[in-house]
Design brief:
Elements (H helix, E strand, L loop, with lengths): L19 H10 L28 H4 L13 E6 L5 H13 L5 E6 L10 H9 L4 H5 L8 H6 L2 E4 L2 H10 L7 E3 H8 L4 H9 L5 H14 L21 H26 L1
Parallel strand pairs: 1-2, 1-3, 3-4
Helix pairs in contact: 3-4, 3-11, 8-11, 9-10, 9-11, 10-11
C-alpha cells in the first residue's frame, strides 16, 4: 500500500510521463564517460573499474552547475511518497550520523501530506536506532519540488518509481538520483580510497567533493544491473509494526553505505 496521496494524479500542464524503457534509454544516452570495460564472459561478473582508470577521470566528468543554492553545506535529500514514514526515518538517521560533518539532510514526498508528523511507528524505530528524538518530533511532511531537487547533491528515494518521478521532474538530476538500495549496491563496488580519489579530483569544497563522489557511484551503472523493483524499501504505512521493522531492515543497511561514501568524500 502506498503512503497517502494519489500517485496517478499529475498537474494538467505536465508532459506525458516517460516510460521505464524511455528513462533507461535516456540514462544510457547521457551516462558519464568512463573507461570501457572488457566484455564479460557469459555468466561472469564484470569487474569494477580501478581507481587508476575511471576514477582518475572524475575531474573531467565533474562540471559544477551554476544554480541558486539554498545552503552552502553538502546536501542529501531523501524521498518517499507521503513523507511521513520511510523518507523521514532515512533523514533522521542520516542527520544523526552526518550532521557533525556539516552535511544537511532533509526529506520530502512525491505526494507528501504537507504538515503531517512522522508516524509514531517510524519515530519509535528512529529512537531505537539512536536517531535524534527532537529532530524526529519536529518533522513536518513536505511535497517534493524542483527547488529541492536542484539544490541536492544526492537524492535518495525509497523506490525505483519514486526515482523515475524525481528524474521526470528534473532530468538533469539523473546522475544524483538513486533508489537508496541501488545506491548502496553500486557504492559497495568502490573502496573508501576510490571515493576519496574521486572527491579529491573536485578540490576542497565539500559540496563539490560530495557531487564528485556521487558521480563516481553513478558511473558504476555502466557495470551493474539497473535499479529493480525488488530493491524497493517496502511501504509500511497503515501496516502492523512488524512491517515497519521489515521496512527498516531493508533501509538501514543501505543508509550505512550512504554514510560510508559521504564520510569518505567530506569527512
Amino acid at each position: 500500500m502506498q503512503e497517502p496521496g494519489d500517485p496517478s494524479a499529475r498537474p494538467d500542464d505536465q508532459e506525458r510521463p516517460l516510460t521505464r524503457r524511455e528513462l533507461r534509454l535516456r540514462r544510457e544516452q547521457v551516462a558519464p564517460t568512463t573507461a570501457t570495460a572488457p566484455e564479460a564472459a557469459p555468466g561472469s561478473v564484470a569487474a569494477a573499474p580501478t581507481a587508476s582508470s575511471s576514477f582518475g577521470s572524475v575531474a573531467s566528468m565533474f562540471t559544477p552547475t551554476v544554480r541558486q543554492q539554498t545552503s552552502t553545506r553538502p546536501t542529501v535529500l531523501t524521498v518517499c511518497t507521503g513523507n511521513i514514514c520511510r523518507s523521514p526515518l532515512a533523514e533522521n538517521l542520516l542527520h544523526t550520523h552526518l550532521s557533525s560533518l556539516g552535511v544537511r539532510v532533509h526529506s520530502a514526498g512525491t505526494h507528501g501530506l504537507v504538515g503531517h508528523a512522522m508516524t509514531d511507528q517510524a519515530q519509535r524505530i528512529a529512537h531505537a536506532q539512536g536517531g535524534d528524538e527532537d529532530h524526529a518530533a519536529a518533522h513536518a511532511a513536505r511535497r517534493l519540488d524542483e527547488g529541492m531537487l536542484d539544490d541536492a547533491d544526492l537524492i535518495l528515494t525509497m523506490t525505483a518509481e519514486q526515482s523515475d518521478f524525481a528524474v521526470q521532474m528534473m532530468p538533469r538530476r539523473l546522475h544524483r538520483t538513486f533508489p537508496v538500495r541501488e545506491f548502496a549496491r553500486l557504492a559497495a563496488t568502490l573502496s573508501d580510497q576510490q571515493v576519496r580519489t574521486a572527491a579529491d579530483a573536485a578540490g576542497a569544497d565539500p559540496r563539490a567533493r560530495l557531487v564528485a563522489a556521487v558521480t563516481a557511484v553513478a558511473a558504476q551503472r555502466s557495470y551493474a544491473p539497473p535499479a529493480r523493483s525488488d530493491e524497493d524499501v517496502i511501504d509500511p504505512y497503515r501496516q502492523p509494526f512488524s512491517v515497519y521493522e521489515q521496512s527498516a531492515a531493508q533501509l538501514t543497511p543501505a543508509l550505512a553505505e550512504v554514510e560510508r561514501v559521504v564520510k569518505a568524500a567530506v569527512g
